[in-house]
Amino acid sequence: MLSARRARPPRTSAHARGVVGAVAAAVLLAGCTSTVEGTASPARTSGAPDPSSSSAPSTSAAPTGDVTPAPQIGPGTGAEARRIAAVTSLPQTVRPDRTGSCFPTGPFGSASGVDALYFGDGRVEQELDRWGFVAGWGTCGQDAANNGTLVLVAEMSDPDSAAAAAEALTAISLDYGSGDQEPVDLPALGASGALRTGGSDSAGSPTDTVDVWVPTGRMLVYTYLDAPSGTAPDLVVAQVQDQLALLQGFQPTPQAQVPDLPTDPLGLGPFALTTPGDPTRFTGSYDLEGYLRLAIDPTVERTLLTGNGFGGAFYRTTYDEDAQLDYAVSLYTFPTSAQTNAVYTGFAQLEATAFGGTPFVLPAIPEAPCFVFENAPGNFAQRCYVGYGSYLASLDIQSLDAADDYTQMNALLPQQRDLIDG
Known about the structure:
eight-stranded antiparallel sheet, globular, disordered N terminus, DUF7373, DUF7373 domain-containing protein
């Protein structure tokens, strides 16, 4: 299964899949293939240290204050994670060249999901749980040389717990693996991070990596990035400051209210086709800012959507283990059919020009804008659009063996059209 961009699974390539990754001590995620929380483990590069070699205590001291228990994991935690998405910093805001998607990106409703996809260490999960982790969102961006930025925003029990978690997790960052990272003081953030020097990017240029945990109210910000040698501390300060500014007006939902958060406030779910397989963690309702955290090009798509009265989106994703196919339906709503048509045309143009799709004619609906993408040799993704009235929908099918295998798309796209055309 795959991460998501433009509110749908990505067209992954060797460049886009698992290039950065996040962990303390510059461990890269280089081929994790699951987005189901708690089931994936990051694949490490050949030179990456083994976190099991750490000699540090497995957890920090027990909390001395009152930690509010986290709500049970369920639809409400997913809804809270999508609220957090809307206030998660985009890496390209600080480094405009980091427009490439990377893994992992998306919502988290459990500390085990964070640890499994970012760290694979075990201690991070324990600390997040210890201090009342509720939900989180992570985003990732990289440049052409695979220098990446990962931002994770986690909601904790209370401000004291967020601060205690930051302290404990910073110690883990400094101790991670072989321990060749050094502390770096970041006075502009009131924090210290873990710096590793002597790396290189895919173009052979020298790089450093840095990561830092910074609390703000109930929220806990983690940022990891690669940067040209000597510049990592300044870049991580700029990225975290952008994140802290976005969080200034955010109010975390009280834990007791999380289970009752609406998961589909606009009632769009019934108009999004239920595709084969089991739901994945991306399924749910997104406002504009949340949606843009999954967009291929947030700047261009913001202009297109806001210019046409975007009302909201519902995203349904599934994975069919038997067929080994990923499916994603993105449903958008607009005030008028004219605005729907404008976005329909705009997305079709972007797919063919900026996003690298090759157009094809689908036998079942020849007039539908359809595009195919080659993820890797012998691995293809298809995307088609249908629209009617106030609704626009796209359907993605990932991991096809042949570019012209239209069996699934021929069967499913007419069903999606029927749902929105009444």
